[in-house]
UniProtKB/TrEMBL annotation:
One Pfam family hit: TLD
Superkingdom of origin: Eukaryota
Species the sequence originates in: Guillardia theta (strain CCMP2712) (Cryptophyte)
PROSITE patterns the UniProt entry points to: TLDC
UniProt domain TLDc: residue ranges: 1-193
Protein name listed in UniProt: TLDc domain-containing protein
InterPro entries xref list: TLDc_dom
Length: 193
């Protein structure tokens, strides 16, 4: 958690204590396990590690509720350490093209930033030959989240390109007192973006 804490400056989680609510290795690599753990808990941070060692993630300022909404926000961002060296500052990638589609809150999917920015579908294998399919993640930077400073359009390693297999997937959310209202813990009212 200390890896990404500096990235939360000027966000709603900047000074708030965080707790781990979802760990795919503990809770299961399924959309239902993901949503059971994260829905209606407010803004959150996704943190993942790939087989090739990249550490990647994203900040979702509107949280998840599992209603199939497109949750817009210009405050959303992705981040990565493509080489896995978290002792150096992360590469932070802002939302581009306006607030729309910052996060897609699909109840039949895991975390999804933009239509194709960073997506972990958590799809079940359809046959024995597809073992590990639930750990696949996809990334295409440019349309919804800015490209890396070197021009690369992925948050993964150069070898992984647009698709990576995850070894770890976690979500952290803020800790709220019992008398505090958790922001964005239900459907968003209609809004033009």
């Amino acid at each position: 958690m200390q890896q990404f804490r500096p990235l939360l400056a000027r966000t709603s989680l900047e000074k708030r204590d965080l707790k781990l609510v979802f760990d795919a290795n503990r809770d299961g690599w399924t959309p239902s396990a993901f949503h059971l753990a994260v829905d209606k808990l407010g803004p959150g941070v996704v943190l993942a590690r790939t087989e090739q060692g990249a550490v990647v993630g994203g900040y979702n300022p509107k949280g998840w509720v599992g209603y199939g909404e497109y949750r817009g926000s210009i405050a959303a961002f992705l981040f990565c350490w493509p080489d896995g060296d978290t002792s150096r500052p992360a590469i932070k990638l802002r939302k581009v093209g306006g607030a729309g589609l910052a996060c897609i809150d699909d109840p039949e999917s895991g975390p999804r930033f933009g239509a194709d920015g960073f997506h972990v579908p958590l799809e079940a294998p359809r046959s024995e030959g597809e073992a590990g399919r639930e750990r696949l993640a996809r990334c295409k930077l440019g349309p919804y989240y800015e490209k890396r400073p070197d021009g690369s359009n992925t948050i993964f390693t150069k070898a992984e390109k647009a698709t990576a297999t995850l070894t770890d997937l976690k979500v952290y959310v803020g800790i709220y007192d019992a008398d505090e209202e958790i922001p964005y813990n239900d459907a968003l009212p209609f809004q033009l973006e």
